[in-house]
Amino acid sequence: MAMKSVNVQFDDDLLARLDASEEVRELGRSEVLQKAAAEYLGRCCQGSKAGQAIAEQYRRAYEHEAGLGEEFAGWEEQGAWPSK
Predict the structure, then answer these.
(1) What residue segments make up the domains of the chain, in order of their start?
(2) What contacts 24+ positions apart, CB below 8 Å, involve 50-59?
């Protein structure tokens, strides 16, 4: 299997915690991160049956009405994602 290098950035604390893990010491960062990415994609993305089912549920729930509905009208703009 062909492999490609990628550049991924971690904050210092997260990288230190990753490097301190026994699995990284045994297998190396690349293998552990490959496993983590594969698990993530299998668990929650479109490629998995569970991910497809969730995406379909969202599509059905929101296909007819935009926004949060009459009960919460006007509140859409009040929410904000936390800044990092």
Answers:
(1) 13-61
(2) none
